[in-house]
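cron nightly-structures :: item 1 of 1
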Amino acid sequence: RRIPRAAPGGSLPEGYWDTRAALARAGIAFPDARRIHDRHDLSAALAELRGPYVLKASWLEHKTEAGGVRIGLTGADEATAAFTAMHRRLGDGPYVLEEQDVRPHVVELILGGRTDAGLGPMVMVGAGGTEAELHRDTVTECAPVSPRQARAMIRRLRCAPLLTGWRGAPRTDLGSLVRAVVTVSQLIAGCQGGPAELEINPLRVGPDGALAVDALLLSSPGPSGHQAQEAP
């Protein structure tokens, strides 16, 4: 599959960076990160962030499949080598260097919403990570939802026991997850200008809160499929 390069002059929406900024303004927490375009930006970011690091080609919709993400970069030399190799292959564009979430006892979920042509705005939560499509453990409701409805959605998941101390593991902060579900439901219910889809995957939920570590805002599919949209 052809890997899209960032268009000159910034004409390609910046994908992850813009989406995470919009979600952060709404109250969704993310690890600290910096947007970078060259090695000078990278050096400045490395001086401000704590490792290990994640490097992302933020304009790509499917970063893993396209080789547009590197995780577990432990220091400046490794991060610089990863950026040099990724930039050589993918070209100029808005990259993101992010602090990697290495908290123990986290559960990876998927959280999203979309506007259905027949049913209207919908919100979804489920088992996430790279195996989300394999597990197919999700619950969907009409948006927006209340905190009580969000809790009920979470309880219906097959993976719900993992959130409440499975086999002696610490309980996760369910309150932060409930707030995230409510927030996404409100965002998708308030979308203007036609169908849209928002996906956070994974949302890493631990005893000390929930962190979104990847997110994408999509338009309705056109002739060539989904198109990444710049968040407002």
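cron nightly-structures :: done
The chain has two domains: 8-99, 107-212.
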